[in-house]
Amino acid sequence: MIKVLGIALLGLSSLSAQTTETWSLADGRTFEGKVRSVTPGVVYFSHPSGPDASLEINKLSEASRKRLIETLGLNTSASPKSGPAPAAGAVHLVARNSGAIDSTDTAMLESQFGKKATVNGKVAEVITLGTTGHKRINFEGTGFNVFINKRVLEKNSRWNLNTLTGKTVQIRGEITKYQDQLQVQITDPSQIGAVEE
After folding, report:
1. Which of 83, 100, 97, 94 is nearest to 159 (CA)?
2. How far, in whole angstroms, is CA 32 from its chain's centroid?
3. 3-class secondary structure, 17
4. Residues 37 and 99 reside in one and the same domain
5. Distance between CA atoms of 4 and 174, rounded to whole angstroms?
6. Considering the domain boundaries, does residue 78 fall inside one?
7. If residue 170 lies in a helix (H) or strand (E), which one and from where to where?
8. Model-level pTM?
9. 10-residue stretch averages of pLDDT, the chain, 197 residues long
10. E strands within 116-167?
């Protein structure tokens, strides 16, 4: 159900006062846990009777995902269907993953080609690709980029990419290549977050 981590992870400072709660999975199963930290697409729980464990956010039930947003302090008064959410809700803060690959470390990115990885980098610019409507996030000091398809952008109102320029972000996804450039193609806003400084 939940993949157990081999190491303990430090929690976000905003989560230090959080108590153990019952969380539900999309398939109806439940478990007890306290949110320790969040990286793009993954939440880390500590358990009252066991080691810390990780879980992909999309495996949580809708109610638990909403509660997670509230726990992280990202809840807003805007309805999710009323249009784009404020920046804090769209580009969430994440704890720096000490095992993340730096976006300028081409050799390490190459070694992870075809695998899922977490990458940190400072955003140089977010551009729209011609008339296609696709978006690309370019990083400082590297050809590595993040690609987001227009159809993916249109399916979710939580994207707020215009706030990313100049920020250090953390991305989680499969390392691929397009026209000999290393990239990660993301399909959900939970895969990218601004790194807490």
Report:
1. 83
2. 23
3. coil
4. no
5. 21
6. no
7. strand 168-178
8. 0.55
9. 32 50 83 78 77 81 80 49 39 82 94 94 92 91 94 84 89 92 92 84
10. 116-128, 135-139, 145-148
